Amino acid sequence: MSNQAFYSVSRSPPNQMSQSGVYGPTQFDLNGPIKDEYKESLGHLGSGVGVSSQSRGRRRQPFNVMNPLTMSSTVGANMEESMTGHHTTAPDESTTQSLPFQGHQYAPSFRYQKNRNDDVQKGTLRGPVKAEITSLDIRYDPPVTGCEIQPYVILQDEGGNVMFLGDLGELKYRWYRGAKRLCSMQRCGKGAKLQCMCCLKLKAPRYMSFFCSVEHLQKMWRAHGQLHEDKAAEPDAPLPISWNDIDDEIDEPTDWQFALSRSEHENGLMKSGGAPDSRYALSRKFPPMISNIWAECSQSKTYTPTQDDIGRQLLLECVPVLPSKGSAPSTEVGSWVRKDTSSVVPEPDPPPPRQFVQNPALTSRPDPRNTFKVLCYNVLAEIYATKQIYPYCPMSALCWNYRRNIIMRDIQNYDCDIVCLQEVQQNHFDAFFNPQMAKKGYEGIYKMKTREAMGEDPKCVDGCAVFYKKDRFAVMEQYAIEFNEAAKGSFENSPGDWRSKLRRLSKGNVALVCVLEELRSDGLGRNRRKRRICVANTHIYWDPAHADVKLWQTWILCQELQKMVLGRDLPLLLCGDFNSTPESAVYELLSTERLRDDHAVLTQDKLGIFVQGELTHNLPLVSAYASVFGVEPKHTNFTGHFTGCLDYIYYSKNHLQVTGVLDIDSDEVLTEHTALPSVRFASDHLAVVSELAFL
User: Residue ranges of region Disordered (predicted)?
Assistant: First the structure.
């Protein structure tokens, strides 16, 4: 058997883009115009892209050459007939229109204006308004176990008004899962992404045709090739025909359709795809569509795949409903619109565990009752996790629902007493971090950045959060430092061009400061003297072209912190993403308590923000990682466009001592998927972790 094309790569094997009852074009289909020879057969779209030319002697083309943006309403009419079973006369060529939405699916439906006020405001009559689902989208394919899937639905009424119903209760949902398709390599268990087409031609057991990767297919090829030879040697095996022969006269008409009967639906099962057996099956260039048995698994808006879903496709059905009054059931209107996914994949294995490196300066291990662990981590806010910034990272791995699980897994594994996070959105703090951390025994406080221009929408602004184990510490004091307000207090109405200074310095960054008090006893049932510690968490401005802004924010932070701790002799813990490398002015100021007057940032200060000789502070700060290794880590930020150390844990050396730190992941681990973030790393930053001891 020739190995000229022994496998196919497709979203839904083999070489099909949907197993569902209708097909909504996606971004994967934008590869070229629709071929004229397909138009006569597009009416058979009942099982996704089961496009087969019925004209004799016509050579089939790959299915993904269709451009949905050039599909005419003739196609939509045929698709509607496929979905509803009712014939719709296609308009002539002069009246055809391009579909306005990616994923557009024609499914007529109706909705009522909710009340008379809506009628008056919208100028409509009381009663149903014709609408249709124009887009049903399941973002971030493939689905991952434990990662909640949230559909996005858009409706459009007769007047062209677009309605997004993602958060409203005017839709009904049904989720199904298909048959398992797992890699046939022993002890693999991953969902299939490849399928051997020779197995289909030879009618080998279908479960033996699936593989999760080219690597596993190559490893299995010797045994798998023997399977082909054995099947071809069977007495009733059809004669092999060259893969590249034109199947002129031997195509059989097929009617691939989505079969769903009322009785099957009531039983929660339905079947899609499937083509009749053919004595000419060996000659086909593309195998018949795989049959799939769909079992209903949920009726909620969202669905979270489980371990049992690995290797299964998921299918979502959605239909608009008319809202009802009281306890009356809602009324379904229009047709159920369907959207499927590729096979569910397991959550990737975590990176290799990082090693704890002890401080070589210590001669003995401190009393564990005097030690505590600190985590500093920029979690990469959802608003910044875009394909434009991280083009090497799959969209599914940029999805917040995916990344948040990895972030929480890492926080749990580090098991720190104090956790300082940056780039935490307000809505994520309220809906995810605070409740999830509470389950793990933490309490937390939060401060959002000040960005008035963005309206302070919690979905558009991030900030800093501090969590602490509530059985170890209690918060006694809490403060927020807003650098915008500090700039106003320093320069507003001052001599010179103070407005330019304010515009330059007002970037919305903040620092969150709290005073924690220990709760533990001495282990003998006696309460020891309660020790307190000041914890500060900040995120300094990011832009490399604004080194003066970074320096000014850091200097203001030091001035405020020394007011809090020096007079009270409080230990200080300063964590943050300072967006500054060890060669920067910020690092020099923090580590040496002053900045030399001839530093480039000061000599290039055209606005007169700094006063020569004032760039000092009195905080005896030491970097935890530099104390252990002698230098800072090579990188804590590792992206496709920058690598370097930006994140630090500082402590006051007259009150605290570092006992050890977690080593940084190797370049080999970080570059496994090009850079960060990736399928194994949730953020573009690495968490820095240190253990400290009270002196």
Answer: 1-70, 82-101, 326-363
